[in-house]
Every structure is written in structure tokens, then in C-alpha cells.
């Protein structure tokens, strides 16, 4: 590529990086002025403090709560809290019968309601099903064509439940992405509702509740067996109802078995979300239905636990609520920030000592990476309620060394190319082609490790994994869009291109300038002649480069000719 073309591309890439940074800054500024965003990252419970609520379970009758059931209740509460956008919450049990919920900041009334509401399981008939994406406004059913019930609904599966208001709600419902997990208000048991299935992304219109989850006595999972007793290598979920539930479920399956299409299905609803919507293949009269489908062992186990414990008639009463101080506090945060500053200074000192002026490219790259990461954390705190914990700060500190490592790999590749006799412009391009593969492989490993750690870990360890992965992405953006284009431009300056002693690319310091030393061997010498300036310097440099290439080719030719003779002499000896 011509020099002017390379320079233009480098400048264009730097402009795009500036545009991206400006857009992120403008987005955060807009959120600060017109939303609830802040220029300071939100802090997690261990750094900011928050609210601790002790929940006392309420059960019906003389029922007792086992530890297994309480753990399932904790899991349901955690899913609800995470779904509401509260990050870095801590949910544990206390004394074997209470649940302790610690949330950063002050929880909203909606969050409190989510925590206290019982996990109610329902069986509702399906009236209509569709793709989860909302229907565009210009394609929704016109007002004059909205359904008008011809009469009062005669049963739970009656299409007359679908009126104009319900149809509008169904068409506007968004069951894609995170919207499918949005908290749902309690709906009347005797009314038709709309609901999402977060796993499949489908949305449903469901009839009134026909069987409630508290009529399930047990639920399990296992492999389907044939009539001869052999296993079919297919997982299924098995349910057992009590006497009332057995009769009610028989009535439901008798009616649904005679219907076609979506109305042949019944939906199992937990917390307003559809967790399964199987079709009715037979009339179940013994109260022991079996749900089959594309289950794995894990998914079958998860559904059986939801059916078994999701029906637990538990609601929680807030026994006490206290404001708690940060468990680590400002001192620990200050120590963590100090450790990060010390690590950054050590990287800067090493870079300037090892690479002289070239080390300032490392410093500038770290600054750009830090700005991008900071903006991302603030924006995620605003949009996703992400909170920075001390473990997350540790991830940022570790990332300083990993980010600097990318620049070191690149610089060393350039130096290797210079030692091979290339000019700086050529060394930058060839060194980049070699370093790019190493950097991509390194960051892919870092990102993969962060993703695995995030999904398998719990608590604050996930904060460490998140910041580690975020900084890996920021590092790639900086190396590709700042470090490399900057070096492309610097390679054409007199200071770096001429190999100034303080540039970090001094030919004498790198041992470049190869000359002959007899027998086709190369020796390293240093040219003591005063440097030329102006046009003479350019002409001299070009002549020297051509002479070096010619000498290298001649040396390689002489080596190849001398090789066989040497081998023969050794064999004679």
C-alpha cells in the first residue's frame, strides 16, 4: 500500500476511535442530564453498603418448611431480584427458617413486593400463541377489526375470553431478550392473561387458572420407558397430584384432548412466566401426568424442581429491615485504588526504561483503554444497574498488566523486524501482522476464561470475571484502533523513523546495520559518521537500505554454496 494510503487509513481509524469515545461520552452525559445516570460508577454492597432485610416465611396450616424447600425459595428470590436489575445482591438463609436479603442502596417498593410475593404455580389453558416479538404499530389489528366476544365465556378454553383490550396487550407484548424476564404483576385467577416464555421467546394468551400448583404432591424426572420396560434414552418430568388435583386435571385433559392447534396445550405458569406449555396427548385420569419433549437431564431436573417447590405456598413477611454499612468500606477501596495506581506507575516506568519514547505510546494506550472502560462501567451502571465491587476493582488492576502485555508483544515484533534489516515503516507493518495473531489468541483466552468464570462462579467472583472480560474487549479496541495506527504515523516522523537514541528504536542499540565479516558471515558494527539531514539523508538512507538487501542476498547465496562443501569435509574427517 502506498505511504499516503497507509497514513490516510491510520488517521481514519483514529478518527473513528474518537467518534466512538465521543458517542459514549455523549450518551452518558445525556443519561446524567435527563436520566438517572452518573459520572461515577455505582458501587456494590461491599463498597457502598445498603439494606438488609430478614424475611420470615409464612405457611398455611401446620405445614413445616424443610431446608431443601427453603433453599428453593432462596433461589426463586434470587432469580426475581436479578431479574429486576439489582446487581451484587446477597441472599442467604439464617437459623434454618429465615431468609436474609442484602441489597446495595435502598430497594424500591417493586423490589420489596417481588421479595415478599409467594411463588405461585398455575396451570392455565392456552388460547393463542405467537412469536415473542411485538407487532409493529402499523401492522396491529385495526380498531374496527379487534375481536368482540359474542357472549360470556362458557369455559376456560373459550375464545370469547379474547376481547379487544386483551388482543391489544398481546400484540404489544415483547417476549424477546431481557424483556421476557421482566417482573410481572399478579393477575386474577379467574381472568385470561398474556404471558411470556423466556426460554423459547414465545408469547401466549392464557385462559383462567384451572389447577393450582399447591395440588401437586410430588414431582420428579427420569427417562421414558417403553411398554416393555426398556428405556428410550429420552428424559421426562413426572408429576403427582392430590385427590382434588387429580379430578381437576382429568377434567382439563378431557376437554383439551378434543381440541386442535394451540388450544390443545396447557401452560404451566410460575411467577407470571410460562415455564412449559405441553400438548395434551391423552386423558390423564390417575393424577400422574408425564411431560416429555426435548429435555436434557439438567432441564428435566430444573423443571421438576420448579414444579415441586415452585408450588410451595410460601409468602414472606419482612421481620426486620436495617441499613448496613459497607463491609469493606472506603479504606479498602482506597487501598485497592492505590494498588492499581502503583501497578500502573510500575508499568509506565518499565515501558519508559525499556522503550524510551516508544513507551509513551504504551502510556497513551493505557489511558485510552482506561477511558473506554470507565465510560462502559458508568453506562452499564445506568442501563443494567451494574455495580462495581472490590472484586471488580481487582479485575481492573489485573487488566493493567494484561493490557500492557499486548503492547510489549507488538513492540518486540517491530524490533525483531528492524534487526532483520527492514526499515521502520516496513517493520511496523510486518511486525503488526505477526503480533496481531498473538494478541488475538491471548485476548481470546482471557475472554473465554472470564466468560466461564462468570457463569460458573457466584457472588463477588462474578464481578471480577466481568471486569476482566470487559477490559479484554477494551484492550482489543485500543490495540487495533489506537496503538497500531499511532505507530504507523510515528514511523514516518524524523524522530522515530530516523532511529533517534531516545526513540527506543535506535539501530545501534538494537544491533541492526549488518556488514560482511568474511566467509559470508555478518558482523555488527556501528556507523560513526555524522547523520545526514534533508534530501541527502533520505537518499543515503534509501541507498543504504538497498545495499543491505543486496548484501543479505549475496550472503545467503554464499552460505548455500558453502554448506555442501562443509558437509563433505566433515564426512571425510
CATH fold annotation of the largest domain: Multidrug efflux transporter AcrB transmembrane fold
Could you estimate the helical fraction of the residues in percent?
A: 40-55%
Radius of gyration: 34 Å
Distance between the termini: 53 Å
What's the total count of β strands?
A: 15
- Succession of helices and strands: HHEHEEHEHEEEEEHEEEHEHHHHHHHEEH
**CATH superfamily annotation of the largest domain:** Multidrug efflux transporter AcrB transmembrane domain
Please report the first level of CATH classification, the CATH class of the largest domain.
Mainly Alpha
Question: Would you identify the regions where 5 or more consecutive residues have pLDDT less than 50?
Answer: 515-529, 538-547, 564-573
Number of separate helices: 15
Tally of separate domains: 4
Provide the residue-averaged pLDDT.
81
Largest sheet: 6 strands, antiparallel
Shape: elongated
Strand content: 15-25%
Structural class from helices and strands? alpha+beta
CATH architecture of the largest domain: Up-down Bundle
Structure description:
By secondary structure, the protein is of the alpha+beta class. The chain folds into 4 domains: 3-43 and 329-497, Multidrug efflux transporter AcrB transmembrane fold (Up-down Bundle), CATH 1.20.1640; 46-116, Alpha-Beta Plaits, CATH 3.30.70.3220; 121-315, 2-Layer Sandwich (Gyrase A, domain 2), CATH 3.30.1360; 513-563, no CATH class. 51% of the residues lie in helices and 16% in strands. It has 15 helices and 15 strands. The strands form 4 sheets. Strands 4, 5, 6, 7, 10 and 11 form a 6-stranded antiparallel sheet that branches. Helix 1 packs parallel to helix 9 and helix 10 packs parallel to helix 12 (461-490). The model is unreliable at 515-529, 538-547 and 564-573 (pLDDT under 50).
Amino acid at each position: 500500500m502506498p505511504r499516503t494510503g497507509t497514513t490516510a487509513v491510520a488517521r481514519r481509524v483514529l478518527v473513528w476511535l474518537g467518534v466512538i469515545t465521543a458517542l459514549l461520552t455523549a450518551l452518558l452525559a445525556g443519561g446524567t442530564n435527563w436520566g438517572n445516570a452518573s459520572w461515577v460508577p455505582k458501587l456494590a454492597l461491599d463498597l457502598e453498603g445498603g439494606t438488609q432485610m430478614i424475611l420470615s416465611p409464612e405457611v398455611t396450616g401446620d405445614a413445616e418448611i424443610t431446608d431443601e424447600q427453603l433453599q428453593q425459595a432462596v433461589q426463586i428470590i434470587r432469580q426475581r431480584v436479578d431479574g429486576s436489575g439489582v446487581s451484587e445482591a446477597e441472599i442467604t438463609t439464617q437459623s434454618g427458617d429465615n431468609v436474609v436479603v442484602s441489597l446495595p442502596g435502598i430497594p424500591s417498593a417493586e423490589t420489596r413486593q417481588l421479595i415478599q410475593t409467594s411463588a405461585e404455580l398455575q396451570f392455565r389453558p392456552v388460547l393463542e400463541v405467537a412469536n415473542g416479538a411485538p407487532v409493529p404499530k402499523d401492522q396491529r389489528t385495526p380498531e374496527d377489526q379487534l375481536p368482540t366476544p359474542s357472549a360470556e365465556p362458557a369455559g376456560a378454553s373459550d375464545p370469547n375470553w379474547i376481547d379487544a383490550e386483551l388482543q391489544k396487550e398481546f400484540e404489544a407484548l415483547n417476549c424477546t431478550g431481557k424483556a421476557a424476564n421482566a417482573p410481572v404483576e399478579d393477575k386474577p385467577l379467574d381472568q385470561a392473561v398474556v404471558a411470556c416464555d423466556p426460554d423459547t421467546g414465545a408469547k401466549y394468551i392464557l385462559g383462567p387458572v384451572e389447577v393450582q400448583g399447591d395440588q401437586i404432591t410430588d414431582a420428579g424426572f427420569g427417562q421414558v420407558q417403553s411398554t416393555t420396560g426398556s428405556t428410550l434414552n429420552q428424559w421426562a418430568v413426572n408429576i403427582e397430584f392430590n385427590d382434588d388435583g387429580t379430578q381437576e386435571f382429568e377434567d382439563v385433559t378431557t376437554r383439551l384432548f378434543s381440541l386442535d392447534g394451540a388450544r390443545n396445550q396447557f401452560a404451566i405458569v410460575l411467577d407470571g412466566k410460562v415455564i412449559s406449555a405441553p400438548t395434551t396427548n391423552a386423558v390423564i385420569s390417575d393424577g400422574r401426568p408425564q411431560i416429555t419433549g426435548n429435555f436434557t437431564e439438567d432441564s428435566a431436573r430444573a423443571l421438576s424442581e420448579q414444579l415441586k417447590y415452585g408450588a410451595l405456598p410460601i409468602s414472606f413477611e419482612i421481620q426486620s429491615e436495617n441499613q448496613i454499612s459497607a463491609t469493606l468500606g472506603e479504606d479498602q477501596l482506597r487501598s485497592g485504588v492505590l494498588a492499581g495506581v502503583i501497578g500502573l506507575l510500575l508499568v509506565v516506568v518499565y515501558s519508559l526504561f525499556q522503550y524510551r519514547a516508544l513507551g509513551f505510546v504504551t502510556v497513551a494506550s493505557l489511558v485510552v483503554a482506561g477511558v473506554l472502560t470507565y465510560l462502559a462501567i458508568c453506562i452499564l451502571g445506568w442501563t443494567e444497574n451494574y455495580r462495581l465491587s472490590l472484586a471488580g476493582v481487582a479485575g481492573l488492576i489485573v487488566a493493567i498488566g494484561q493490557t500492557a502485555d499486548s503492547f510489549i508483544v507488538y513492540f518486540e515484533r517491530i524490533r525483531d523486524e528492524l534487526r532483520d534489516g527492514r526499515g521502520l515503516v516496513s517493520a511496523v507493518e510486518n511486525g503488526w501482522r505477526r503480533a496481531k495473531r498473538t494478541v488475538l489468541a491471548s485476548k481470546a483466552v482471557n475472554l473465554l476464561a472470564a466468560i466461564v468464570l462468570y457463569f460458573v462462579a457466584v457472588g463477588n467472583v462474578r464481578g471480577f470475571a466481568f471486569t476482566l472480560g470487559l477490559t479484554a474487549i477494551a484492550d482489543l479496541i485500543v490495540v487495533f484502533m489506537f496503538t497500531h495506527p499511532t505507530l504507523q504515523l510515528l514511523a514516518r516522523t524524523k524522530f522515530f523513523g530516523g532511529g533517534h537514541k531516545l526513540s527506543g528504536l535506535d539501530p545501534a542499540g538494537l544491533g541492526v546495520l549488518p556488514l560482511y565479516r568474511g566467509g559470508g558471515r555478518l558482523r555488527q558494527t556501528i556507523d560513526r559518521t555524522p547523520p545526514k539531514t534533508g534530501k541527502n539523508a533520505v537518499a543515503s538512507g534509501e541507498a543504504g537500505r538497498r545495499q543491505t538487501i543486496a548484501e543479505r542476498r549475496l550472503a545467503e547465496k554464499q552460505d548455500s554454496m558453502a554448506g555442501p562443501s562443509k558437509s563433505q569435509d566433515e564426512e571425510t574427517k
